[in-house]
Amino acid sequence: MLTSAQAQERAEALIARARKAGADAADAVYIADASESVSVRLGKLEDVERSESEHIGLRVFVGRRSASIGSSDLSDAALSELAARALDMAGQAPEDPYAGLAPEEMLFKGPVPDLDLFDAEEPSPQALRAMAEEAEDAARAVAGVTNSEGAGAASGAVVMALATSHGFSGGYQGTSRSVSASVVAGEGGLMQRDYAYRTARHGADLPSSAFIGQQAGERAVARVNPAKLKSGSMPVVFDPRVGGSLLGHLLGAMSGAGIARKASFLLGKLDAQLFDSSILIMDEPHRLRGLRSRPFDGEGLPTASRALVQDGKLTGWLVESASARQLGLTPTGHASRGGSGAPGVAPSNLHLAAGSVSVADLIGDIADGVYVTELIGHGVNGVTGDYSRGASGFRIQGGEITGPVAEFTVAGNLLDMFKAMVPADDLEWHRSINVPTIRVDGLMIAGD
Q1: Contacts of 323 by beta carbon, 8 Å cutoff, 6+ apart
Q2: Average pLDDT, the chain
Q3: Considering 221, 244, 278, which residue would you say is the last residue of a domain?
């Protein structure tokens, strides 16, 4: 795997070859990752895995025609062949009036800020095994745990570099450290499983492996022998583990490409009061050690903190250059890149600001409701906003979380759900999308 500086050099070299071959404009992206993981089950080593990959992608423009191509061969000969093939492909492509690089005057300039994404202390395979064993031992020590699906620890690194033919070149690198455990509680038909995991840029930011294991064990035991729910309308409270998915649906509908295609349930809602006026949703790409922090976007534009929802209203769409041209807007610095193809859009570190009530007060007036800890399936219509997902969790009765429940469906419409959303004050910061506990009244439960 190349260093960030070496990756920039390779991307720049590929751009030079593309221009020499006849491209009017081009950009090149290098993405590489390396990971090592160790897993154990029932106290025995189960798997040790090491993987490395690197890919360089080229996008060329000839007039309004464009083509993308990629390769894992970074030699000079391979880059020359890649550029020639991309030009041949572009000659056969249809014209796209919105295709092109990001506006030159908007490109990121200056040194790349240090977001502290790289942990120089790489754990050894022996250390990873010890972390996994500690997590599983702690999980199996919880009374009521009867089996283990295993525990694991992993270490990874990624390098990203981007170069464009109109003056941008930049790169950065980051690391990840993680630990997880998954166990089973109960016997026979009453068995239930649950898990816990944590990921961080730096190993020092992880909680102890024993904490992760104990959390997995306690969660599994709490789910044993679930009851069924009766069908009907009731308040639903989303645990922070699953509440972030609601923001994910919002982000998908805010994509400029979806708006341009008129395939979003947010069409015509830019000035509408979608949420309560207290709701604030922030995107923070420069958060130190953030899991999705980045100094520039996938087109070489600067990134910056932005309120995506403020006072309960959208502040605008998330657009890369192509959809910005189509919509007559300015790119927002949310372009994301894979190894090939045109950029899409993606947020960075997202959070829903904490509310003013405790979790106890949030559920205290619920006579009959449900606390959801797991969502199953993908029954969300991005065009209409209709929402229907399988779920499990715990019954809320008389303002208290009581016994486990399972095999029910939560249904509604996202626009109605956003309007009814009430956050608690328990926001934590260890995911890429961070939310507190969320209450949504009036959802339909399909159970018995």
Answers
A1: 98, 255, 256, 257, 259, 260, 317, 329, 345
A2: 96
A3: 221
Q: Are residues 216 and 284 in the same domain?
A: no
Residues of the chain above pLDDT 90, percent = 96
pTM higher than 0.85: yes
For residue 70, what is the DSSP state?
Answer: E
Which of 166, 198, 221 marks a domain boundary? 221
Assess whether 164 and 257 both reside in one domain: no
Measured between alpha carbons, how far is 268 from 271 in angstroms, rounded to an integer? 8
Amino acid 378: pLDDT: 85
How many whole angstroms from its chain centre is CA 260?
23
Residues near 30 by beta carbon (within 8 Å), at least 6 away in sequence: 2, 7, 8, 10, 11, 54, 55, 56, 57, 159, 160, 161, 162, 171
Rounded to an integer, what distance in angstroms lies between the CA atom of residue 379 and that of residue 437? 22
pLDDT at 340 over 80: no
Q: How many domains does the chain contain in total?
A: 2
Q: Which residues pair with 181 in a beta bridge?
A: 151, 196
Same domain for 257 and 322, yes or no, is yes
If asked whether residues 124 and 263 sit together in one domain, one would say no
Tokens of 104: 């030159």
Domain around 278: 227-448
Q: What is the pLDDT of residues 258-311, one digit of tens each?
A: 999 999 999 999 989 999 999 999 999 999 999 999 999 999 999 999 999 999
- Give the strand pairing for 433-434 and 350-352: parallel
pLDDT at 339: 78
**Same structural domain, 335 and 385:** yes
User: Could you tell me if 194 and 243 lie in one domain?
Assistant: no
Q: Are 376 and 385 in contact (CB under 8 A)?
A: no
Report which of 298, 269, 250 is spatially closest to residue 68, judged by C-alpha positions: 298
CA atoms of 363 and 164, how far apart (whole Å)? 52
The rounded Cα 288 to chain-centroid distance in angstroms is 17
Judgement on whether residues 285 and 319 belong to the same structural domain of the protein: yes
184-238: per-residue pLDDT in tens?
A: 999 988 899 999 999 999 999 999 999 999 999 999 999 999 999 999 999 999 9
Q: Judge contact between 447 and 363, C-beta under 8 A.
A: no
Here the CATH number for the domain that contains residue 123 is 3.30.2290.10
